[in-house]
Amino acid sequence: MMRFSTLMKHPAEWMTGASDDSSIVLTSRIRLARNISDVPFPGWARKPERIEIMTRLRPAVESLTEMRNAFSQQLSELTSVQKQVLVERHLISREQAARNEGSAAVVNRDQTLSVMINEEDHLRLQSIRSGLHLREAYKLITKIDQQLEKSLPYAFDHELGYLTACPTNVGTGLRASAMLHLPGLVISDHIGQVIQAVAKLGLAVRGIFGEGTESLGHLFQISNQSTLGETEDEIINRLERVICKVRDHERNARIKLAEDDPQMLADKIGRAYGLLRHAYVIDSKEALTHLSLIRLGGDMGCFPKEVISLCDTLLMDIEPAHLQHISDKKLTPEQRDIIRAEIIRDRLQNIPTPDIGTLDNQSKQEND
Hints:
Blueprint: H1 4-9, E1 25-34, H2 47-62, E2 71-74, H3 80-88, H4 94-97, E3 104-107, E4 113-117, E5 123-130, H5 134-151, E6 156-157, E7 161-162, E8 174-181, H6 183-187, H7 191-200, E9 203-206, E10 219-224, H8 232-260, H9 262-278, H10 284-299, H11 306-317, H12 320-327, H13 333-348, H14 357-367
Antiparallel strand pairs: 1-5, 1-8, 2-3, 3-4, 4-5, 6-7, 8-10, 9-10
């Protein structure tokens, strides 16, 4: 099995901007909730029962071909910082990070597949891919689900579907989501209209770490809310259509900003570059906002394209738990702000000054 230190040496596939279309849609994620039929749900189980369930489920997950040489650990064996690192990488939930004995996480080597054992449900199967690739993520998670179902008696009702701890997950147990980078819509002040329109279609818009979190770095998660009354294909098709629409609106907003006010856009990108290159103290919220603008500049030709994947890696590496893991000690918020600024300065030192002329060129091309 892979050690935690090995897991940390390699950025997740989705953090490297591996997909060609990840400039706006960073990630696609599919999550399935499953439970075992003959035992109480985790929230109702006593500690000895949770430990027994975990002991039964963990070998079944570890034996999957896709989990060969995976990272597998009981939550009680991880430090609070290690658990928070897994949350920041979206490999476990904040709820599972709060659990200890009787709970475990299994993550494959490239961090595209993770299984939470005894989170809210007995099993939370999750696949994350770079870019808009919900189908690929669903294909992988379905394969895992079918293999586990051969050896585990799932809690299933022929009328309702898969039974889950929370009624909002009953039915397919499927939650599909995408993480989108929408600075164009935020700067042009159209993001409110888009969020309202998406909500009217029965979809949820959340912050970077899901339910109850705010949007940072102009990052938004869009996901289905209903898991009952629709097939998995219908849920994914509906979500894909909406995400493509939002992606198009963001693309048009970027073009319109370059066309209407290239100097304003150049000023924002240039200021972000200057501040991040020379700041010695910076908090997480400010850093994410300016990295978002550098990332926007990378997509609009102001920087080399590689800047996008550099920003995506930094988005995780400057989070509080990652900073403490890198430093190998607990840090105060003030210490984290200093180390965060140091890491950003170091990573951006070879990035050339922004080529602002590309914005004027884009504006002229649109007017021709």
